[in-house]
Amino acid sequence: MRFTFVGDSMTIGRAGDFTWRYRMWQHLTAALGSPFEIVGPRSTLYDPGADAAVSQAYGAPDFPAGARAHLAGWGEGWLHMAPVIADTVTGHRTDVLLVSLGLIDLGFYTDSGQTARNARAFIAAARGANPRLRMVFLPVIPNVRAESDAPFAAECERFNELLAKAVADLDAPSSPLLLASRPTGYDIHHDTYDGTHPGPGGEHKLAAAFADAMHQAWGLGGPYGPRP
């Protein structure tokens, strides 16, 4: 089974981060019980000094180079990923997409309606590349901006409603779609280092949201293990 992580800055991480991708790799290694691969066209972290995704300075030295693959970008959202997802799925023979997108779109690029249309375009393109593809989507977690910007908070809420509708509308037995729950107990003041990007606690909770959704809905792997 071949997994691809798709996301924005919360998924790519910056130099020195462990990333929730690392936590998920740990979980799959312990719980899946069958061979798997993490695949994708990129492997780096964002380097603030270079203002580019050029770093391999992961916080976990035991994170294998072969498991660092992803399709994530600092400042990238549904708008950017919809045009490239088909090539990624085809080129890397992806079986399962784990997708965390939307916050950057709503914050800088598109309103909730257009963001939802981009999500549907993403799903169509991904399925065009692999008609039996499975996809898991994480709702947008409003960041600290939402506490002082009511219109932005409303757009986050509306997009999550539209994303849930898209998943319900487009789910199919041959290519199942799954909407994960918002991570239990996620607190942007304790689980992030800047009100947006996850610290170690947040990384575990993001990974758990995906892991528990796949286990509960598809019987894939097991429930997420204890959080250090």
Give me some keywords for this one:
about 230 residues, alpha/beta, six-stranded parallel sheet, globular
What's the gist of this structure?
The chain is α/β, with parallel strands linked by helices.
What does this molecule look like?
This protein is α/β, with parallel strands linked by helices and 228 residues long. It has a single domain, classed as SGNH hydrolase (Rossmann fold, 3-Layer(aba) Sandwich), CATH 3.40.50. 41% of the residues lie in helices and 13% in strands. The protein has eight helices and eight strands; from the N terminus they run E-H-H-E-E-E-E-H-H-E-H-H-E-H-E-H. Strands 1, 2, 5, 6, 7 and 8 form a six-stranded parallel beta sheet that branches. A hairpin with a 4-residue loop joins strand 3 and strand 4. Helix 4 packs parallel to helix 6. The longest helix has 21 residues. The protein is globular, with a radius of gyration of 16 Å. The protein starts with a strand and ends in a 10-residue tail after the last helix. The mean pLDDT is 96.
